[in-house]
Write a structure and sequence with these properties.
mainly alpha
């Protein structure tokens, strides 16, 4: 099966975007040449497996497509693999725990609503 062309920066209508995603899910692994080229995993099982397999699917070389011009320092935790990533993940884990986030959920919602109101 040929995998569909995919460029996440392309402007598509809702129906066309839904159709494109359905085509991607029918293709186990797709490749896009947009933005310098990248691989696409679109099925839950493949994405979950890739998230656990950092040796094959490393984030250390960057996770943005296209990569930023004049590559800057790596983003802590996001663009790191174990064991380096694990040190930072332990630091973030308590701050982003379910109880801590629930405690500030109202403030987060109010902030988001305020920003959206200003944007509108």
């Amino acid at each position: 099966m040929d995998c569909p062309h995919f460029d996440h920066h392309e402007t598509l209508g809702d129906a066309e975007r839904s159709q494109r995603y359905a085509e991607l899910r029918a293709c186990p692994v797709a490749r896009s040449e947009a933005s310098g080229g990248f691989w696409i995993l679109s099925r839950h099982d493949e994405v979950a497996a890739a998230a656990e397999d950092w040796r094959t699917y490393s984030s250390a070389e960057g996770v943005l497509a296209p990569p930023p011009a004049g590559r800057r320092a790596r983003q802590v935790a996001l663009e790191q693999d174990p064991p380096e990533h694990t040190v930072y993940r332990k630091l973030y884990a308590e701050l982003l725990s379910r109880p801590r986030v629930r405690a500030i959920e109202g403030a987060i919602g109010a902030n988001a609503a305020s920003r959206l109101a200003a944007l509108a």
